[in-house]
Amino acid sequence: PVMEKINTNIVTLTRFLTEEQIKHKEATGDFTLLCHALQFSFKSIAYYIRRATLVNLTGLAGSHNTTGDDQKKLDVISNDLFIEAMRSSGKCALLVSEEEEHVIYFKDSRNARYAVACDPIDGSSNLDAGVSVGTIFAIHKLAEGSTGTQEDILKPGTELVAAGFTMYGASAQLVITMKGGSVNGFTLDNGLGEFILTHPDMRLPRKRSIYSVNEGNSLYWEDNVKEYFESLKQAPEGGKPYSARYIGSMVADAYRTLLYGGIFAYPADKKSPKGKLRILYECAPMAMVFENAGGQAVDSNMRRMLEVVPEHIHDKSGIFMGSYDEVEKVKAFHKLSA
Ligand code: AHM
Ligand code: MG
C-alpha cells in the first residue's frame, strides 16, 4: 500500500514568529512573546465559542459596555481572556478594548514596550446563531522613553507595528501582518492546538464583482454612496451585476473579501455621521491587512484609512475597503479618483 504523504515540515505560528525574530537582528524577543500571548487568547476564545451552546454561554451577560451595547456572556469572557493574556505576557504596557471604557494600564509590566488595541469579539450579534465572529488586534510600539500613556495608542495606522484578526468560523483562521511585510494566514489545527501557516503571502484579487454592505441603511446614505452601490447592480454590456454578500461580522466579511476580492463597506451616513466601526481596533488594523495584501482602505471622505488619527480611543469612522480597483471605483463616485 502507498503510504499517505504527510507533511513533516510544518510552519506553525510559533515557528513563523521565531523565524521572523531571527530576521530582525535588533529584535529582543518581546514582540514574539506578546504574539504568543495573543495566540493563546485566540485559542481559548475559539474553544469557548465552540462550546458555547453546550455549556450555557449563549445569550446576554446582563451588562452593557460603555458604548451602550448589551454584552453577551462571550463578549465578557473573551474580553477577560484577552486582558489576562496581555497582562501576563509582561510585554503589554496598555490595552484598549472595545469592551472597556478606559485604557487599561499594566503598571506591573515595567519594561513593556507595546500598546495593544482589540475588539475581543467582533460581530457578537451573530454569536448565538453560530455564525462566524472574530477578534481584531492592533499593536503599537511605545514612543522612545515613554512608560505608556494614551498618546502611545492614539496614533494613525501608518505607525502600527503589526495587526490582524482571528476569525472563528468552520475553523479558526488567524491573519497577521507586520509593518512593511506581507499578510500571512494560519489555520488552527484543533488536534495539535497550533496555528499552521496555510495561506502564506495573501494577495487580494485586483477586482471582483462582490459587494458587502448593510443595505438596510441605504435610506440614510449620502447620494454618492447610493449612486455607487446602485451602479454595481447594473449589468454592463454582456456582463452581470455584482453579487451581494453580507454576514454582519466584519471579520468574516473581511476574510472573504481578502480571499475572493470585492468591496466591504460600512459608510458614514445621515444617521451615523461618523460611521459605526471603531478606528483603533476595527478600521485601522483591517486597513493595514488590506493594504499589505495589495488592496486599499479609505474612510467616507476618501482619506487613506491608515492616516486617520483618532482623537479618543473609541472614535468611529466610515470605511470602504477591498480590492484595489474596487476601491478606485468608490473614489471615482466620490469624485476624487486618482
Ligand atoms: P460589534 O463589535 O459590536 O460586534 O459591532 C461591529 C459589527 C461588525 O462586525 C459588523 O461589520 C457590523 O457591526 C455590523 O453592523 P450592522 O448590524 O449595523 O450591519
Ligand atoms: Mg466590533
UniProtKB/TrEMBL annotation:
Originating organism: Echria macrotheca
Top-rank taxon, per record: Eukaryota
UniProt name for this protein: Fructose-1,6-bisphosphatase
Subcellular localization: Peroxisome
Protein family per UniProt: Belongs to the thiolase-like superfamily. Thiolase family.
Fructose-1-6-bisphosphatase class I N-terminal domain sequence ranges: 12-200
Domain Fructose-1-6-bisphosphatase class 1 C-terminal: 205-334
